[in-house]
Amino acid sequence: MMVEQKLKVTLLTGRTIEQGVGKEKGKASKEYFDACSMCYMDADDMKNLGVKNNTNILVTTPDGSVVLRAVKYPRSATPGLIYIPYGPWANAICSNRTTSIGMPSFKGTPAEVQPALDQKVMTMEELLKSEFGR
Amino acid sequence: MPEVIIKNGFVFDPLNGINGEKMDISIKNGKIVEKVTHKAKVIDATGLTVMPGGVDIHTHIAGGEVNTGRMVRPEDHVKDTVTKTAMTRSGTGYSIPSTFVTGYRYSQMGYTTVMNPSMAPLEAKHTHEELNDIPLLDKATYPLIGDWWFVLEYLKKGDLKECARHVAWMMEITKGYAIKIVNPGGLESWGFGHNVHSIDDVVPNFCITPREIMVGLAKVNEMLNLPHSIHLHTNNLGLPGNYSTTLETMKALETVPYHGKPVAHITHLQFSSFGGDSWGNFKSAAEEVANYINTHNHMTFDMGQIIFTDTTTMTADGPFEYTLYQLSGHKWVNSDVETETSGGIIPFHYKKNNAVNATQWSIGLELALLIKDPWKMMMTTDHPNAGPFSFYPRILAWLTSKDARMATLKNCHKKAQKNSLLPSIDREITLYELAIMTRAAQAKALGLKNKGHLGVGADADVAIFNINPETTDIARKYKTARKAFKNAAYTIKDGQIVVKDGEVVGKADGRTMWLNVETTEPCRIDDEMKNKFRQYWTVDYENYPVSDHYVKVKDPITIKASV
Amino acid sequence: MSIVKSVTCPICGCLCDDIELTVEKNEVVKVRNGCAICESKFLGYKGHHRIKTPLMRKDGKLVPVSMDEAVHAAAEILANANYPILYGWSSTSSEAQRIGVELTEEVGGIMDNTAVVCHGPSILGVQEVGIPTCTLGQIRHRADLIIYWGCDPWSAHPRHLERYTSFTEGRFENSQWKSYMQKLKAQAGQKKLESAARIEIGSTHPKPQTCTLPGMPQSMNKSGRKLIVVDVRKSMSAEMADYFIQVQPNKDYELMQALRVLITDGELDVDSVAGVPVEYLKDVANALVNCEFGVIFFGMGLTQTAGKFRNIEIAIQLVRDLNSRTKFTIMPMRGHFNVTGANIVSAWQSGYPYGVDFSMGYPRYNPGETTCMDVLLREENDASLVIASDPGANFPKKAVENMIKHPLIVIDPHMNATSMLGDIVFPSAFVGIEVEGTAYRMDHVPLPLKKVVEPPKGVFSDEEILTRILNEVRVIKASSKKLSKKVDA
């Protein structure tokens, strides 16, 4: 029986310039979709997990799971870290624990990554519909 | 607007020499008039004290610094919440009330005009936005320009005329009312973490001294014919032994040509009248300072009276606030403003059993009682620095009643009791003198022709108090007096009753006053100036001025300068 | 065709006010001086995602309705709600924010803004220890040591360095742009040599970069401005830095505490802190105390990681301590262009900067209790109004789920995630493009926003929409009072 490989990582969410440009174009725009439905990963981590650049992965946390396009982080090694730009895809899985001060834990929480070649990245409309029924 | 007649009250109107005379005050169209018709609404002021509405020459109530103070002190607000009513907005109070509450509370005490004394020009729009949200009061604000790069450079060059033109321009575009100077030279030095320690220290990078800044701007003030004098917070404020700096400052200002109108106003004088040379041998120098003031007429002052409570200090004197931080370890805000000024905020609790605080408390009162001429010394707390303005009635009681002073003094630290001059001072300020110190003198020093008095033509801003001067000896019944001053029987703003029995019963926005100074030759706002602007600030020239959009109810005053 | 100068850009907390727009036939056709995000907004705001009429959800679908119907429905919801949330506020003017406070007070709801998911923790930290800070021009004129900690200005505040820090000219410090260009050239040259060497040797793939931390480079000894970036990964901003410190995730607090020890000449009994060798930290501590004027800019890397507001507290305490050695300041990198304004307006009218609860008739503030995220997670709200923000896209899933269990009123120019989830949607005009107003920069400096084009017909400003809803709420409340008096009588 083939055991699907999973990688334990620390999840970061945050801004990218493409996300900024995309959100001004419109949250339903292609630019926003391309900018936010993706996930930066460390090159070595991707290699070990058998994930090719620009293919899909499934990211899971205790709060949910979402399919994203994996992109090699271009600037340095970031072993064990993944970075998803702010947006509805990131929020499908990020922690809502506010530790009693109103701020959810958007960075530094545990997640698991596995290849998801046969799964599709949902559009924002599809994601909202599946999560909220609207 | 309807006619109103206030009948039969005991009127105290020092600017018109009226001292407790029983008379009627007639109001029409928001102004005091000679008489009104029988249709006028009657306010029966029999047995009550009638004064012009209060004028506060120095109170931090609006703008960036004040609001940052609000933001960092939620623990201050939670003990003083104000519920919304049909007539009033909600808010919070204590040492830094929210804007609506500021307006209501001042008005409830019979005040009708207030001056916000510290405005960083770059943040002027913020100050005006907040002033718009202070109801029931007329207001104005003073731009901080004592350490403004243009002022430092032109004064260094000796070009008083060009300095004056730039100051006129700054006054107009920030919609300001007076030249405010704080620790001159110290704020620019603080840009790199330094300070000046005497009025002859040289400011790094600008080669100018505090003496030159103060005297230069006082002369500029004369050239511009501004209604108020320069408004000055001295160097070395808050440090033991600083009274010598204060005396030097006052002597330096003797060199400014005096034409019968004061050339400078030193604010919150209490903080600048410290003797001793360390916190260990800290003592009052009120006598030395008062002796000088009693023999010189070229300046006016306000008290900065300490209230024993937990309050918040906030001034443009960044280095001084840092000193307070080093002393107390409290949360400390510092806020330097490019090209212009600085600022700091720190909570402070004045305690009776702290020898220094208790002596400070005594200093403020000693000054007020030893300075013979009440027209020179005005009542303030430099709100909220020495205490919240809502405690003014306590100060009025201390001023008018030796019993009140002694009752407080006897609970103070033994050292402060021993050294205080208050036991030897019998003077009790009269109601007439009180009216001078809380409205007439303030309006006069500010050059506000229609405020602070009840003569024909004045704005119909009136305060009526539950004090019968014939039957109540406020020196003995100081608690009664305190209650009366805390909750006015009536506060009338522009002829409209806005407060009755200490409750807000009317709505009014109040006006914002500012100066449009017409120089004979305007400041050269050409491309060179605009470029220099871009070098000095991080905002574009076009976005710097305060447009009319920022003032809800406009009351500009045109001044013709002599330059 | 006309050219409008000195336009203030309505995107991020930089509030650049030197934008030049070319306007033709009521449309912005060219943008000068703006960054990529600025251009995207000014040229793209009229996209097909623009909402043209008020919408209401009927039978599960959003359908066009008249303004009157939408206003009345929204006012009914708010007037009758027990605990409504009025959230957002960060991308509109202070003029609109003022009406927002008044409306929230009138309906007894919670007034909260996007700081709750951004720099709310910073505000909490400041409320604990204060903050030694300044306006951005002070940095421009005086700072010779600039630190970006847990933030990436290149991505989120693209013109920050060129307008306010390393790459700008000040009275006492010069721009480091030329020096940075030379460094890039040298790096490009070095890469060419390495590539040539690999081809020579016969390897086709560049060696993967190993995670060895370098010590402080020689460039930190240069005269002039120095730039340090502290982050968990090498961001684009880190590439521009003279020194990049890679800190382990969730360990910024430890790193800052370690520096606090070292700047007071203390000793550490460990070899490394947060993944950074102590020897390197000693060099950093020296750089901190030996500068003339230092500044730390910080962002979500501190507010959103473990410790949250405690991270800010410790950063501020580090800067406070540094002030006994030299001049040092600290500033949060505010995200939305007027989130600072939302805090400022809320504070001057109520005393509190965000998470203000008016349900008792007076302002109450208790983050964790009255902040909207917690109210949503506890499912205590029974209606929401969202304006000038997009929690549908930016809030954790559970919070959004709970938000849409109850009526959701949305005021926004675009069909964004929140609008798509809304029950009543009002199209609004863009502040700073179609409506004038005031915004507050990250350093609290107020700036005017210009109106450069007319909004589409039938699209109103946030101010107008809020005023109409407020007036209608008052009418509804007054008539229900009359009704209950009649019933009692």
Brief rundown of the structure:
With 134 residues, chain A is an alpha/beta fold.
Describe this structure in words.
Chain A contains five helices and six strands. Chain A has helices at about 15-25, 30-35, 45-50, 90, 125-130; strands at about 5-15, 40, 55-60, 65-70, 80-85, 105-115. In chain A, strand 3 (about 55-60) and strand 4 (about 65-70) form a beta hairpin. Chain A is an alpha/beta fold and about 130 residues long. Chain A has one domain: Beta Barrel (Barwin-like endoglucanases), CATH 2.40.40. Chain A has a six-stranded mixed beta barrel with strand order 1-5-2-4-3-6. With about 575 residues, chain B is an alpha/beta fold. Chain B has a domain at about 5-50 and about 450-505: Urease, subunit C, domain 1. In chain B, strands 1, 2, 3, 4, 5, 21, 22, 23 and 24 form a nine-stranded mixed sheet that branches. A five-stranded parallel sheet of chain B has the order 11-12-13-16-20, sandwiched between helices. In chain B, helix 9 (about 245-250) links the parallel strand 12 (about 230-235) and strand 13. In chain B, helix 13 runs antiparallel to helix 17. Chain B starts with a strand and ends with a strand. Chain C is an alpha/beta fold and about 500 residues long. In chain C, about 40% of the residues lie in helices and about 20% in strands. Chain C contains 19 helices and 22 strands. In chain C, the strands form five sheets. Chain C has a nine-stranded mixed sheet. In chain C, a hairpin with a 2-residue loop joins strand 2 (about 20-25) and strand 3. The longest helix of chain C is centred in the last third of the chain and has 27 residues, at about 460-490. Mean pLDDT of chain C is about 95; it is low at about 205-210. Classes of the chains: A alpha/beta (about 130), B alpha/beta (about 575), C alpha/beta (about 500). Chains in contact: A-C, B-C.
Spans of chain A with pLDDT under 50 lasting ≥5 residues?
A: none
What can be said about the biggest beta sheet of chain C? Answer: 9 strands, mixed
CATH third-level topology of the largest domain in chain C: Rossmann fold
Low-confidence stretches of chain C at least 5 residues in length (pLDDT < 50)? 206-211
Q: How large is the count of helical segments of chain C?
A: 19
Portion in helices of chain C: 40-55%
**Structurally, how many domains make up the residues of chain C?**
2
CATH topology of chain A: Barwin-like endoglucanases
What percent of residues of chain C are in strands? 15-25%
**H/E element order of chain A:** EHHEHEEEHEH
Strand adjacency order, main sheet of chain C:
5-4-20-19-18-6-7-16-17
The computed structural class of chain A is alpha/beta
Radius of gyration of chain A: 14 Å
